[in-house]
Amino acid sequence: MMAENYFGLGIWAVILVVIVLALYFIPSFVAYGKKNALAIFILNFFLGFTFVGWVGALVWAICTPSKDTEINIYNVGDSRRETKVESVADEIERLSKLKSEGVITEAEFNSLKSKLL
Prior knowledge:
Elements: H1 2-24, H2 26-31, H3 37-47, H4 51-63, H5 67-101, H6 106-116
Helix pairs in contact: 3-4, 5-6
């Protein structure tokens, strides 16, 4: 009879430990897949037992952009480069038109074109 009580108590102890660990590592779960996930985990692991360390890790995890966000930022930069290339091409086309109309000479056209490229 006594062994059954210890067994039931052991199950409840394991469930309680799992719940406490899940709550303790909430900042690490939130940070999963983000840029500073490892650093947030380390802060959470070593200082999470203090309320300030746990809240700091959670705030950091929430405020950190995901890795996908960085890729989108780089994609925006790439589209700007494409726009710049298009504007350079437009500028060269405009210079070519000015050269064909006789407004600028061949030497001026080549000089301006080399500055653009």
